[in-house]
Amino acid sequence: MPSISLANTTNSSDSKKEKKMKKKVALETQEIDPLMVANKNEKKKEKEKRKRKAAEFDDDDEERSETSSELCEPVNLKKKSKKDKEEEGEEEEVKAEDPNAVTRFTISEPLREALKKRGIEALFPIQARTFEDVLNGCDLVGRARTGQGKTLAFVLPILESLVNGPTKASRKTGYGRPPSVLVLLPTRELATQVFDDFRVYGGAMGLNSCCVYGGASYQPQEFALKRGVDVVVGTPGRIKDHIEKGNIDLSLLKFRVLDEADEMLRMGFVEDVELILGKVKDVSKVQTLLFSATLPSWVKQISSKFLKPTKKTIDLVGNEKMKASTNVRHIVLPCSTSAIPQVIPDIIQCYASGGRTIIFTEKRESANELSGLLPGARALHGEIQQSQREVTLSGFRSGKFLTLVATNVAARGLDINDVQLIIQCEPPNDVEAYIHRSGRTGRAGNSGVAVMLYDPRRSNISKIQRESGVKFEHITAPKAEDIAKAAGVEAAQTITQVSDSVIPAFKSAAEDLLNTSGLSAVELLAKAIAKATGYTEIKSRSLLTSMENHVTLLLESGKPIFSPSFAFSVLRRILPEDKVESVTGMSLTTDGNGAVFDVKKEDVDTFLAAQENAAGVNIEVVKILPSLQEREQQRGRFGGRGRGGFGDRSGGNRFSGGRGGRGGGFSDRRNSSGGFKGRNNGNKW
Ligand SMILES: Nc1ncnc2c1ncn2[C@@H]1O[C@H](COP(=O)(O)OP(=O)(O)OP(=O)(O)O)[C@@H](O)[C@H]1O
């Protein structure tokens, strides 16, 4: 059990109080302060910035985006004249000063109203940059960082085109009409989310949409399709099934959209996608749009197969070094597998600002296991029944619980309000996964925090750093005392809210305690608060593996240490075998002159005293974790006596301490699926 219990089943009014309290704590506890206070202040600034952001056109972006526009003649897109604006009144005029104001685009009144209801009065850059091209009939590849509004970048111009624009004339209406728009997405959750945008904004324009995905029953989907819809949103497998059953007729299709295209293709949907796109007889009459935050080069090659040669590319990331969200604090924290369940509640306490947290694991079993260990958390992965997945996601969205433990099934596209913190239990296999996972926070101009846990001996964070352009902040696990302080202030606040009416009932017990305990009233109250927070024992954490009641030591032998086995041999010369055996996490320092490792707190004195047994050997307690060599640098050096396996302290469950076994699942990346193959439940999420 974690030593700190989390009250993460609060409702939204509680969460407001929580946030207030956290700010107070932040001002009182120095280690945590800068993060929280900065977060809050940043948020305020972010809000103001967000307004400005929508208005910004980056000249560099202009240069970065390639365009080829021969076939794309502008239609009906003149900006409003001064006279028009005068007629619409002063308020409209002020908004129109914003170059990305909705009023400056060919967006009709009902759509404008629907946007306004959702608080959108200006387009984000990717939307502003692609709007005219899509409305003009261009095929388009669109790329912008996570959370920058790529969905509306295709939804808005498509709707305008269908209702008032170039595709209006040839669009069929009435009962049994075939769809005009087909949107393909990799996951059901994402399909539902994008469908919701089409439902709301399309509904405002008098257009009908339906959503089709595997795991749900066919009948309602068939019924909707037969009745006739304008927009079909769904996952490739189920859409293919409907096409083959004759439920979807693509003969009058005007738009096809591949959202999160790289993921769809990576998941093994290539054949389904090709088959679906191949069903369109006359491709010259169909516009194809492809959007993602990540477009690996192999996707660009594939896109040239599906999109016209005259396609436009609007790439707001381009060759910029930073590919991940710039609104997110990207943090790494060393942590052994067995310490993960204990460390996560502390990270949430310090970095979630009372908001939602998504924790990513590599495997489904790990998501199940971890969600069982974290109070109030729920799991989401591909093996969970669709109906339950929907319940879980909607519970998370509505704030019924604040911690979601998910596999990559939640990495892409999910847009959930107030996700403040992302925790990745280990570095993902590819940089795209890092970019999308961390992008579940810091959306639409808000700020967020992404913490990635790693084992220095096994993980390679510099590859992700290099490829994503992220400059990671290195921290160690929040200190127990700070967490206790934070939790204590929260509990104290809760106690003051307890009704005075309970006092008479508990007064005599309190008096007895005061008279017999030998403690002062303040000391007793401190214990009561500790009990209330579930934090009855202060445990120290090691800097290297974040394990409770362990201490990180540095070994130097007066000459370079080339391998962990050499470090072990030095220890063996000066310490009994059982003490050497108890060492965990042996890692080499980047300068090659030392090795750091964890020992049990009660063994620290033995290790420090042992240095007297050999000249030139120095052992000391580490105050600040030095820079460590990564897996690549240490590869092949862990041979010595089979030591150094990641799971060497994993026992019964994959998170708890104890010896024996690699632990599998959570800890062993070599057991992981190594790819997302197959459709629907065929993938390993
Ligand atoms: N013009 C706008 N003004 C304010 N908010 C907006 C605007 N456009 C989109 N949003 C909001 O921004 C959030 C992120 O949008 P969206 O999910 O489309 O991002 P995305 O770029 O597709 O992200 P990802 O790459 O993670 O899928 C949504 O909550 C959306 O409602």
UniProtKB/TrEMBL annotation:
Spell out the Polar residues composition-biased ranges: 1-13
Alphabetically sorted, this entry's keywords are: ATP-binding, Helicase, Hydrolase, Nucleotide-binding, Nucleus, RNA-binding
Q: Which InterPro entries match?
A: DD_DDX21-DDX50 (IPR059027), DEAD/DEAH_box_helicase_dom (IPR011545), DEAD/DEAH_RhlB (IPR044742), DEAD_box_RNA_helicases (IPR050547), GUCT (IPR012562), Helicase_ATP-bd (IPR014001), Helicase_C-like (IPR001650), P-loop_NTPase (IPR027417)
Catalysed reactions, as listed in the record: ATP + H2O = ADP + phosphate + H(+)
Start and end of every Helicase ATP-binding domain? 131-313
Q: Give me the stretches of Gly residues compositional bias.
A: 637-666
- Molecular-function GO terms, alphabetical: ATP binding; hydrolase activity; RNA binding; RNA helicase activity
Location in the cell reads: Nucleus
List residues of the Helicase C-terminal domain: 342-484
Pfam families, alphabetized: DD_DDX21-DDX50, DEAD, GUCT, Helicase_C
Q: Where is this region: Disordered?
A: 1-101, 632-685
Q: Which GO terms describe its cellular component?
A: nucleus
Q: What is its EC number?
A: 3.6.4.13
Superkingdom of source: Eukaryota
Q: Which family does it belong to?
A: Belongs to the DEAD box helicase family. DDX21/DDX50 subfamily.
- Quote the protein name from its UniProt record: DEAD-box ATP-dependent RNA helicase 7
The beginning of the lineage is: Eukaryota, Viridiplantae, Streptophyta, Embryophyta, Tracheophyta
